[in-house]
Amino acid sequence: MNDEERHSGPAASSTGVGEWHDWLASPPGRYALAWQQAHFDAAVSDLFGFHALQLGAPGVDALRDNRMPHRMHACRPEDLVEGFAPELLIEHFEELPIASESLDLVVLPHVLEFAADPHQVLREVDRVLRPEGRVIVSGFNPVSLWGMRQWWTRSISAEAFVPRDGQFIALPRLRDWFKLLSFEFHRGRYGCYRPPCRTQKWLDRTRFMEGAGDRWWPICGAVYVVSAIKRVRAMRLVGPVRRAPLARRAAPVAIAASRGVARLPARRESTDQRYM
Prior knowledge:
The protein has helices at about 5, 10-25, 25-45, 120-130, 145-155, 170-180, 200-205, 210-215, 270-275; strands at about 50-55, 70-75, 90, 105-110, 130-140, 185-190, 225-230. The protein is α/β, with parallel strands linked by helices.
């Protein structure tokens, strides 16, 4: 059995999920979740419809400020934590047991980074969303201080800052996936510019970098939240084709001359008259 098969087994999966939950409870995890919670609240507050779904991430309630009448939270069995009771348990997010074009909003907080096939997850979201439905995605930005530390610790086999099972997906790559499907990129936001510190003390000391980063290096935030709209090109019915009738030419009218009137020949001037 190779390394890939070993890491894809149930034990490895549960171990990675446990590390992820432990990281979310750490100071940098709480810092990242607090920033995302604030921006999820702002992003979903003005979205209307009937059915909304959040996948994964029991540590954040992305739909708490949404006003849709039916809001569901779905997660995998290994994502269950004490005190959290989701409405739906799904074994794999790559295969959603939901009817096509039945949802108005789907939120994916850090789902694509831990999915075996993130593009297939987006295809399923595209299938279950209605036309003009919204998808909101959050993830870690590899072009950031956190991404640099994650890459460095992976290279030297040291303890990773974020659990190793997570694969950072750059925002340009995510936008390309949106274009391949029927999504139109709507808006996005970077945040969490403080350095990757493990203690709350150093996170508080570097608080000034939040405002400086938003002004001087806005694309280098550690976390991003983006939204996209599902566009479906509909057929335009123009009705039956009606050909305009060709303009008819007026038929020549024959005028009969009176019997007693003879047609006079055209007057011609003789050569002698012209030169008189």
